[in-house]
Amino acid sequence: MTQNFGKIRLLIVEDNVSLAENLFEYFNDESQYSPDFASDGLTALHLLATNQYDVIVLDVMLPGINGFEISHRIRHDLRRNTPIILITAKDHIDDKTQGFNAGVDDYLVKPFDLKELSLRVQALARRNTVSSDPLLHFQDVSFDPDTYTVYVKQQPVGTLTGYSAKIFELLLRACPRPVNHEQLVEQVWDGRPTEHHTVRTHVYALRKQLTEFTQLPLVKTLHGRGYILHNAE
């Protein structure tokens, strides 16, 4: 976990030699970063299994295992909640949806400015610096914002990933009040311009995961007002 006085440990996963060299040179020259590099998915997974990182910058098109699959393995096999920024030339909403569903936290389309990438890395690193909070509760459902684990009647039933975990935490902290689009953008996306359909996609993914975990339709849409936790049982 990132500390305020320490460098941001950054894993860059990119097979394009020219871009990889630019990224590594840029972040290696900045005093607040400590970057590592992998040119393929297997190397990246090995590094992640043996090291702790604050943020991962991950290309989609990689030899062997693509970025979507790597993200899925990071979340489900390695059980890591390390923030992931996906970098890719793919800018279609279906590609973005696939990335977010795999547990990605942010999405940057090539070509991009290195300063913008740096700002996004810093924002994710700050958000990942979390104190040890108590469980958050809604009726019989509890959530650990440190491990992203969901509990029903104190029994673990599943783990959320990426934006789903952050949205659920915000809904729990706001309950019984609803959370609107502006609040989600401000607190989950750090105020970056985010389209309504992107937010809806993430809320839908969260609703689906929670229903699978708890057998309850916990997230309710209030048209014109946002979203609220609601047990219709």
Detailed description of the structure:
- This protein is α/β, with parallel strands linked by helices.
- Helix content is 41%, strand content 21%.
- The chain has eight helices and eleven strands.
- The protein has helices spanning 17-29, 41-50, 67-76, 93-101, 114-127, 162-174, 181-188, 196-214, and strands at 8-13, 33-38, 55-59, 84-88, 106-109, 136-138, 141-144, 149-152, 155-159, 219-222, 226-229.
- The chain has a five-stranded parallel beta sheet, with helices on both faces. A four-stranded antiparallel beta sheet has the order 6-7-8-9, with helices on one face.
- Helix 4 (93-101) packs parallel to helix 8 (196-214) and helix 6 (162-174) packs across helix 8 (196-214).
- The termini are far apart.
Structural class label: alpha/beta
Helix content: 40-55%
Biggest sheet, strands in spatial order? 2-1-3-4-5
Strand content: 15-25%
The largest pleated sheet is described as: 5 strands, parallel
- The radius of gyration computed from the alpha-carbon positions, rounded to a whole number of angstroms, is 18 Å
End-to-end CA span: 38 Å
Note the run of SSEs as H and E.
Answer: EHEHEHEHEHEEEEHHHEE
Compute the number of helices. Answer: 8
Q: Report the count of strand segments.
A: 11
Give the overall shape.
Answer: globular
